[in-house]
Amino acid sequence: MHFVSETSQYIAIQMNNIGKFLFAYRLFGFYNETILCRKTFQSKGVTMTQITFIAPDDSMLEIARTAFKEPYNDIKLVKGLISEGVQKAESYIANGTEIIITRGATAIAIQRANLPVTLVEVPITGFDIIRSVEKAKAHGKCIGAVAFPSMLQGIENLGKILEVDIRLYPIYAEQEAEPRVLQAFQEGAQVVIGGFITKLAARKHHYPFELMDSGVEGMLQAAQEAKRIAHARNLEKTKTSLFRAVLDYAYEGIISVDRYNRITFFNPIAERITGISAKTSIGKKITTFWPELNLQEVIHTGKDDLGQISNINEVDVVCNKVAILVNQKAVGAVVTFQDVSQIQQMEARVRQRIYASGHIASFYFKDIEATSIEIKQTLAIAKKFSLTNSNILLLGETGTGKEVFAQSIHHYSNCRQGPFVAINCAALPAQILESELFGYAGGAFTGANPKGKPGLFELAHGGTIFLDEIAEMDILIQSKLLRVLQERKVMRLGSDKIIPIQVRVIAATNKNLMNLVQENKFRADLYYRLNVLQLKIPPLRERKKDIPLLADYFLKEYSGIMKSRLKLAPSAITALAQYSWPGNIRELKNVIERVIAVHTHEVIDAAIIHLMLERPSVPLAASPIIPDELAEIQKALLATKGKYTQAAQLLGISRSTLWRKLKRLQIK
Description:
6 domains, 29 helices, Beta-Lactamase, 5-stranded parallel β-sheet, Rossmann fold
């Protein structure tokens, strides 16, 4: 039970904030605001604050019925004096009453009963006192005022004005009324005035008495005060309902405690993460089930503690602990926390949305056309590898479809929802490859983006990075790659910030890495870090049963583009099967495309196949070094002042070809 001035700390604060505004309302303005608030609450499904008036006798009840018209006609009216009033109050509180209007002894009794209600006492106005004194003067000019202190305020100042001798006899309990009445008459009082319990005591001894009755003015004043409090409560209910909805449907667990570490709020997400029911936790100390949280330190110091990692219910969570300050003093604390795994998933989605647009895999295992035992066995192994988190090394000749396997493995793995980022390690010079892989900070080097750029490892977070032609990677970059694979952290060029990553690495090569390790051209420690799971993709000449199937697949693919319907004759299939296919599937695809481009008949025979097949007089190998090649390259670089793109144009070759020649010639 609370009086108007102390409904609750929170209501009091809000009354201080809006009190001047509310009390400035005129009756009509207040009425309009009340109607608006009622409509708002009805639309939101929030219960309006109920007000009950408890009259101590029938006469006051009748006055209230007459006085309480619009906007006060929704106030419930009931009679009850002292103990009966307390019983009526308990009954109405149980049915939703939040504010009770009453006076005198009944108000004191309800207060002492400590009922959960806000109490508004009907004031004794100056008009009420003057009326009762004027009536009492008929019995004599020595008047004893026997009443509770709240009814006697200012009455002593009326003595000289009304030419009477008013003596005050304050009482603090119902049983004090009779002794004080007797005392007043013993000390010369000719009449007593007071409330209803004074009336009963005076009549018991047949002494003259006049009732200090509450008039219409006091009742309306109390009703207006109750309406203002109800209005403020309703506004707070709306805010509370809104805040409750926000907190209940937040993505974070939220728990609040008071200054004694007792839990005052526990939202559904907190229930899910902690495995603790809100109903059983409210009112209990948070230290009973989460002692390491140490909220008492935040309450004691008043300083926030943000971004701390804790563990609850075997779940790692990131916690923000914030002190609740009132008048610069901590009165409690709020902890918000979120499952670390959810944060990681969210971070991966953000990275994928912002940075990794286009970094997706398009091939699946079902796209790999195969009937041969060799490739079926390879597919079975690849699927088993996919379900692990280990690094995979793909070995196979050029054109065997290593990237198709890499994309298929990604789609079959647990990180299928993440990005698939691929890079050819032989296509870029060492400096550029380093910045592409690991990213750079703003201003890290001349020409760098001032905002910086994320590396491919960052972009692949939560997914897969495919490092094709890993054998061509510069030895210096190999050492940096090794550290990234070991620590699962990356640092951009020109930055000192460490960025944690979770990436599945698939590397591929068409060379013998072990030979390169023995020749000190490839780091042994990086080789063993990459070669956790090894998948050998058989060349096309070892899976000749798949050649007809693949050829037919490419025919259908390109026939649709060129609007031709062709099919292979048995002799053509035999010719394809007899060829060694040094370029593997890529070469087969190119041959079929050539045939479609020049062939005009519906059936493709062996003759056209032999015509389109390459018959090199010498084995295919790396581009030979012509005698003056070194001098020509050096001359071109000198002429272009070391600009590789212009030097490549001058030599009539591509930039990537130039880089391969520079590496082979050991020119830096």
